[in-house]
TrEMBL record:
Lineage: Eukaryota, Metazoa, Ecdysozoa, Arthropoda, Crustacea
Pfam family, one: Mutator
Name of this chain's protein: Mutator-like transposase domain-containing protein
Transmembrane domains' residue ranges: none
Every Mutator-like transposase domain range: 89-451
PANTHER family assigned: SI:CH211-108C17.2-RELATED-RELATED (PTHR31751), THAP-TYPE DOMAIN-CONTAINING PROTEIN (PTHR31751:SF7)
Organism, as annotated: Cherax quadricarinatus
Superkingdom field: Eukaryota
Length: 597
């Protein structure tokens, strides 16, 4: 062995410091300090300017993790032999001490004996090679947190001149850490559901006779790979009020052992009886829990989550989802069309971010489909679009209309259907107005209006020319009516009622980014690695880095350095990010002339 590594907790290994307990500060910060109120939160008038992450973490009880001053030591063998040359026997005081190394995974167990009096100074513990040691567990856990796998693990160890372990040993540590992560996540989710019930009780939403509380959730699915060939699909339900994850489901449609045995059976390398015996023993351990297409994983995960919600004393009466209606349709068709809950119909609300994209997609389709082909020389043809070009529906104009659509949805939340519809149509008519036909009747009146036309009327001034507008378009009457029909279809009463709360799937999208940071989409990953990524990301999302770290649950202890790192990561996650500022334009010096300097 060329490396001698040690942990203070292991009595049979050379150590550096004596373990001295140190009580750290609580994981959950103190209650949020009230600051200037923000108008972005329409749910409470007295809301404070705190980040969503800080608001989530502050809902949990404070804990005081015990931090121990532990250090890991890595030393080359010649330096260690030089150090051992100064050691004398405690029996005969001889310096003829023999040191033997016993390698166990990444650690090296040291045994010492005296060659003069045959006394054993340090014994090799029995069964040490059957244990999961601390150093290897820490390094495998660090590899999983950074999103790496076995190849990156052995590459890093080789560069650091550290021993390597087999793929089988790496898999044993991976499965053990994943089981601990899932257990920790389940405990956090149980605590989360209790917090959600308390928050809804503050809003006078009391449980029924069975103790079940009706809540609103945002639901979205994500896949390991893009396209329709992903082996893993994940569905997550997040409470719309507290923004906390309340339940999730991971689906897998591939098992390596099952596929291997089926391949061997087709090649007649094993008999049918051997295959049946394997299936019987492997059924409980099989990673495959879904059979079907990858695109329907989102619907299947939603059905599982809704069906078991009553066991968790919750009813998801409102689902906030994107434009895909397959999930909502599958939920309402449960129990022969009666829905998942007897006597309560699940309602659907639209994510305003996804709903605004519908306008962009429909206008883009309108541009692409309405054209005529003009015959050119040499048999070539050119497409002449009817509604695309300068002064019409360019890509810039479509993006601006979609931005105005989304802004009106966000600004009109909590009002009524008519107000929201008028705000959306006001942006449409405003951008299509001309000097001959000004359409500003829906724009807000007054001198403080965003509409230049209404401001001029309020100040008793002649309105400026519409040619000064930066965002404008002009279409022929037939094409204008087609765009108007798209706006009228998207502002129907039933659709505006789904958007009136102004809810989004931003919490789900944020969680998805956190999940796949632990599980690279470009690389192959097995079920254990996906389960770890999902459970660990959900725990971090709900309670923060400090409480979700698994070093204490794994029995490794938390070092003071790691405690400081986790607190700093929580501070960064919970800080209130400044709004994006527009880029400053370069000041043009009009007095400069060519050759003037």
């Amino acid at each position: 062995p060329h490396v001698a590594t040690a942990d203070v907790a292991a009595p049979h290994v050379a150590t550096a410091d004596v373990a001295t307990p140190h009580v750290a500060t609580p994981v959950v910060p103190s209650s949020a300090v009230a600051s200037t109120s923000t108008a972005a939160d329409a749910s409470a008038s007295d809301s404070v300017c705190v980040s969503s992450a800080k608001r989530r973490v502050s809902m949990y009880d404070k804990i005081t993790p015990v931090v121990v001053k532990k250090k890991m030591i890595s030393m080359e063998d010649d330096r260690f032999d030089e150090l051992m040359s100064f050691v004398r026997c405690s029996e005969c005081l001889s310096n003829k001490v023999e040191v033997t190394y016993h390698k166990h995974h990444l650690e090296t167990v040291v045994a010492m004996s005296c060659t003069e009096c045959k006394a054993v100074l340090v014994k090799k513990p029995r069964g040490v090679c059957k244990q999961l040691n601390v150093l290897t567990g820490r390094m495998v856990y660090a590899e999983m947190v950074t999103g790496g796998g076995y190849k990156s693990f052995i590459r890093r160890n080789a560069l650091c001149n550290l021993p390597v372990i087999t793929h089988e040993t790496f898999s044993r540590y991976t499965s053990m850490i994943t089981r601990v992560s899932i257990q920790s996540c389940n405990r956090i989710l149980a605590e989360t559901r209790a917090i959600v019930r308390k928050e809804y009780a503050k809003q006078d939403t009391l449980p029924d006779a069975r103790g079940v509380v009706d809540i609103d959730v945002t639901y979205d699915g994500t896949w390991h790979t893009r396209g329709h060939h992903s082996n893993f699909g994940i569905g997550v339900a997040i409470d719309a009020v507290t923004k906390l994850v309340v339940d999730y489901q991971v689906l897998c449609k591939y098992c390596f052992l099952c596929a291997n045995m089926e391949s061997r059976l087709k090649k007649k390398k094993i008999t049918v009886e051997m295959y049946e015996n394997f299936k019987e023993k492997h059924e409980r351990k099989c990673n495959k829990n879904y059979s079907g297409s990858s695109g329907k994983m989102e619907v299947e995960a939603a059905l599982i989550i809704w069906q078991r919600s009553l066991k968790q004393k919750l009813r998801y009466k409102t689902i906030v989802s994107d434009g895909d209606s397959a999930t909502y349709k599958g939920i309402t068709e449960l129990n022969d069309g009666a829905g998942p809950y007897q006597g309560l119909q699940v309602t659907k609300e639209e994510c305003i971010n996804h709903y605004a994209k519908r306008l962009k997609n429909r206008l883009t389709s309108l541009v692409k489909l309405h054209y005529t082909e003009k015959q050119l020389r040499a048999g070539k043809k050119r497409k002449e679009y009817h509604v695309k070009g300068k002064g019409m529906l360019t890509d810039f104009m479509i993006d601006k209309l979609a931005q105005y659509f989304q802004k009106n949805l966000r600004d009109s939340r909590g009002t009524d259907v008519e107000t929201m519809r008028n705000g959306i149509l006001a942006s449409f008519f405003h951008c299509s107005s001309t000097d001959d036909n000004p359409e500003h009747h829906l724009c807000p009146p007054g001198s403080a209006s965003w509409c230049f036309y209404q401001r001029a009327l309020a100040d008793n001034l002649p309105p400026p020319s519409h040619s000064t507008m930066k965002v404008k378009f002009h279409l022929q009457p037939d094409d204008f009516n087609k765009v108007h029909e798209i706006y009228k279809d998207l502002t129907r009463d039933d659709m505006m009622e789904r958007c009136i709360q102004g809810r989004t799937q931003n919490p789900n999208e944020s969680l998805h980014q956190r999940i796949w940071s632990y599980c690279n989409k470009a690389l192959y990953r097995n079920k254990w690695q996906v389960d770890f990524a999902v459970s660990h990301a959900i725990a971090e999302y709900n309670v923060g880095y400090e409480r979700s770290c698994l070093d204490i649950q794994l029995g490794y202890g938390r070092s003071l350095l790691n405690q400081k790192r986790l607190k700093d990561m929580d501070r960064i996650m919970q800080r209130l990010k400044a709004p994006r500022s527009k880029k400053r334009k370069a000041v043009v010096d009009t007095s400069y002339e060519a050759g003037g300097h």
